[in-house]
Structures are given as C-alpha cells and as structure tokens.
Design goal:
Largest sheet: 7 strands, mixed
Structural class: alpha/beta
Distance between the termini: 88 Å
Helix content: 40-55%
Strand order of the largest sheet: 1-9-8-7-6-2-3
Bound molecules: pyridoxal-5'-phosphate
C-alpha cells in the first residue's frame, strides 16, 4: 500500500489544490453555524439542507451516546432500539434538563444542552425582531398551551400561596378553562360585554369585549390578597374580541396583581404584538404563553412562556419537575433555519393581507345570502358570518343538530377549521362548571346561529379562494337538501 506522508491525508488522494477546495466548502457550513452562534439570531435567508444537517450532526455528535467509544452503565444511557426513531431525533435522545431542572446543562448531552440554549436565544431574538422588544427571558416547553398555562399558575402559586382565585374573561375554548381547574384554582368567570363600534349603525352590536367594570368589582369583592392573577386572552374566535389587555395591565399594575396573558396564536398578529408592547409599557404583564405549532407551523406539542420579568421565567424553569422531551424544540430550531427570518416576517405580513382579502370576499358572500358579517374591530384573526337567513331558507331550522350539520358538510369536503355556533338549550358542563350557550363566549347572543373561521399564518390564496367558492356551493346544497326532506 502506498504510504501517506503529507500532513493532510486528503491531499494524498486528490492533491493539494483540490483538497483546499474541499476543505473550504466544508468550512462554509461551519462558518454559517459559527455565525448563528455568534449572532444568536435566525439567519435572514433559509439555509440549505446540507448546512442544516451539518449543524444537527455537529450538535448530535457532542452527545455522549453518539460517540463510537461510548460505554453506558447508568440507568438511562440513550439506547434507542429503533433506527427510525434514532434518525427521527437526529440522535438527540437525552431530552432537555437534568435531575429535576429543565434548564440545567447535561454533561452526557452537551450538544442537546447547546441546542436548548441556542434555540431559546433564537426565539427570543425573533420575538424582538417582530416587535416584542420587551421580552427578556423565555422557556420552550414540550407540551401545548394548556399545560404551559397550568405550569405558569402553579409557579405563581409559589409566590402567592394563599391566593385562591383567577379572574378570567370568558372564552369558550375548553383548554383555557381547564388549565385553571387543573392547577387547583377557583375561576371567577367574567362574561364579555357586547359592544357596538359603529355609532352610525345600530345593527353593529355584535362584538364581545372585556367587561372591565366587572373585573374591578370582583377585585374589590375578593380582595387583592386572595387573587392569584388576572388571566386574559389575545387570540380567540370571532365575535369575541381579544381582551382589553391594556386596561387589564393597568389594573394589574395599580393593584399589584399578577397578569397572565394567553397569547396562544397572537405572535403572528401585528395588532396583538402592538397591544402587548403598549400594555407592558404602561401596565403589568407577568407571563405570556404561546403555542409553537399555531405560531411557527411546527407539529403540535410545544409552547413558549416568556416575559420581561427575567427572574419570574427562571422560577418557572425551576418549578418544572424533571427532564423534558427536546422534540418540539428541535422542530422549532430546524424550522427557523429552514425558513430564515425574512420568510417568517413575510408570512406575518402576508397573513395580514390574506385576512383583508378573506374579509372582502366574505362581505360580498354575506350580501348575496342576506347575512351579516361578524368582523370584530378588535380581532384580526377570526371572522364570522350569521346563518339566520340561510337557516330560514333551509326550512326555518331551529334544532342545533340540524344547523350544525353545515359544519359536517364542510368537514366532509375536506374543509377544516369552520365552527358553527347555534343556540343550545342545554348548558355545557366543564369540570363541574356550567356554561350557557357554550361556544359563543357569553350566555346570550343576539346573532346566533353563526359560523366562524380564521385566517392563520401560512394560509394561501388558493385556500381563501376555494373556501369562498365552496362556501356558496355547500350552503346552496344545504338549503336544497333541507327543503327536499
Ligand atoms: C385561545 C386558545 N387558548 C388555548 C388553546 C389551546 O391550546 P393548546 O391546544 O396548545 O393547549 C386554544 C386552542 O385552540 C385557543 O384557541
């Protein structure tokens, strides 16, 4: 065998100049990775798959279980029997955290530890880039919004152990209610009030807004020391508007009450970002919770808790018992690199345009069917349309099950996300609490039945166009079928 005497063994195969080209190309991936580490920011442009794989492999190779010389004699040694599972996780099998602390570095898994810290930084930087400049600390968790809210309440309990109540502006989404019960608190439910944003049109009395006066009187009644927090919501189904976060923040500041904001899918809504900024400036926001799937288009399973209060987020981290799956965080990291920051910003801007497009299209449809659009001034994500005349044309239906059949027709035609809300004679029970007309976020609503749908990040023009076309087709078919019976 020919002996290799050169310093760089690659040179002995392909010569000095080719070897140099090869190593420069190899270094280009390394350079990009170093740049991300130095800048702590998502690159503006998308990375190609080779670079992403290089970064993931580099990180993964820092974990002990992936070393060819590894010997494991502990009770948890990252042994993965399935190669498909191993590959799906890029060999990052130790999760995040260490012996009881989710944020601690793991000596066995240096790469995973780096990934957690880096993704935290990238996410924080992204939040700054889209306008949430006040965020000082963040945690990425491997469970969805509801559990992150529960963890938030349980952390606040450590700081206010005698408080029993959470004051909450009703939003008819079960997670939002159950998280208070699961964490052992008594919810004080404030029904939203109906407002009219248009002085010239008496019929515009459809928007559901936070009842600030009731918040104030409940605080007086219960006493500040007995209240854990005010729990507000920024993203919800029309006709409910996002809560009056500014006023609630002011109340929280004045009374020194914790303020937890459910920002499940508000990160991509520029209006919500604006309001959060203002609220933080003039009032008090302690913890904000968002879903990773709804905001960043990754699989369900992750959430963010973030705040301007660095120490409070550290307390949330400390309060989490044990380790956690790294999977949702890894999905987020890969998505950030594959999208690039500019694309994320573009999607945010584009969604806003699609929302306006959807509203305009539907105004015409509503006119055709003599229905009313429910477009709240203070909700830039979800819109609704009444079904009063459609239901009349279909034979004056008044049974909830007949009306909600419309929803099934959409679903059967592969349209998901549509919600039909009809009057419900029966109360809905959730965790022992009873709600009238569950679904419309208040006990009585004048414009039932109605339908809502949302314009979320990533929606395409085709989806909007085809939904509008199919809406008319389905409604016509519904009216025809019902009249046949
Ligand atoms: C306002 C609001 N909060 C919370 C949730 C629940 O989020 P998750 O399923 O991520 O727990 C939803 C789900 O749609 C929601 O609309």
């Amino acid at each position: 065998m020919e002996k290799n005497n050169s310093q760089n063994p690659i040179e002995s195969f392909i010569g000095k100049s080719y070897s140099k080209i090869g190593s420069e190309l190899q270094n280009s991936h390394e350079k990009i990775f170093k740049n991300i580490l130095n800048m702590r920011s998502i690159p503006n442009e998308p990375l190609n798959q080779n670079t992403i794989n290089y970064i993931l492999n580099t990180i993964s190779n820092m974990d002990g279980n992936n070393s060819p010389n590894h010997i494991g004699i502990g009770e948890r040694e990252g042994r993965i029997i399935s190669n498909i599972v191993l590959n799906r996780n890029y060999g990052l099998v130790h999760g995040m955290g260490r012996s009881g602390n989710i944020n601690d570095l793991q000596p066995k898994a240096v790469g995973s530890s780096l990934l957690v810290q880096l993704t935290n930084s990238l996410t924080k930087n992204l939040l700054h880039s889209i306008g949430l400049n006040f965020i000082d600390n963040i945690i990425i968790l491997p469970f969805a919004t509801g559990m992150a809210l529960t963890l938030s309440f349980l952390t606040l309990r450590l700081l206010k152990p005698n408080a029993k109540y959470i004051i909450w502006s009703r939003i008819d989404q079960k997670t939002c209610f159950k998280c208070m019960i699961t964490s052992g608190f008594t919810p004080i439910i404030i029904n939203p009030i109906i407002i009219n944003n248009d002085n010239n049109n008496k019929e515009n009395d459809f928007e559901l807004k936070t009842d600030i006066e009731s918040f104030k009187s409940e605080i007086e009644k219960l006493g500040v020391n007995n209240i854990l927090c005010i729990f507000s919501t920024t993203s919800c189904f029309a006709p409910r508007a996002y809560d009056d976060i500014i006023k609630l923040s002011e109340i929280c500041k004045e009374k020194n009450i914790f303020h937890v904001v459910n920002n499940a899918y508000g990160i991509y809504c520029t209006k919500v970002v604006d309001i959060l900024n203002k609220s933080n400036k003039i009032g008090k926001i302690d913890l904000i919770i968002s879903s990773t799937d709804k905001n960043f288009m990754v699989p369900v399973g992750g959430s963010l808790i973030y705040s301007s209060n660095y120490d409070l987020i550290e307390k949330v981290k400390k309060n989490y018992p044990g380790r956690a799956s790294i999977s949702p965080l890894l999905d987020l990291f890969v998505t950030f690199l594959e999208s690039g920051k500019e694309k994320i910003k573009f999607l945010i801007k584009d969604r806003k345009e699609k929302y306006n497009f959807l509203c305009e299209k539907f105004k015409k449809i509503a006119e055709k069917y003599d229905e009313k659009m429910l477009i709240p001034k203070n909700n830039k994500i979800s819109i609704g349309i009444t079904l009063k005349n459609i239901v009349k044309k279909a034979g004056n239906l008044n049974e909830k099950k007949d009306i909600t059949e419309i929803g099934a027709m959409f679903f059967n035609r592969q349209i998901s996300g549509v919600r039909i809300i009809a009057r419900n004679e029966n109360e809905t029970e959730i965790s022992g609490y009873k709600f009238k007309n569950y679904g419309c976020s208040c006990d009585e609503y004048k414009y039932l039945p109605y339908m809502t749908f949302a314009c979320a990040i990533g929606i395409t023009n085709d989806e909007v166009e085809n939904f509008c076309k199919k809406f008319e087709k389905i409604i016509d078919e519904f009216i025809k079928n019902k009249n046949k019976k």
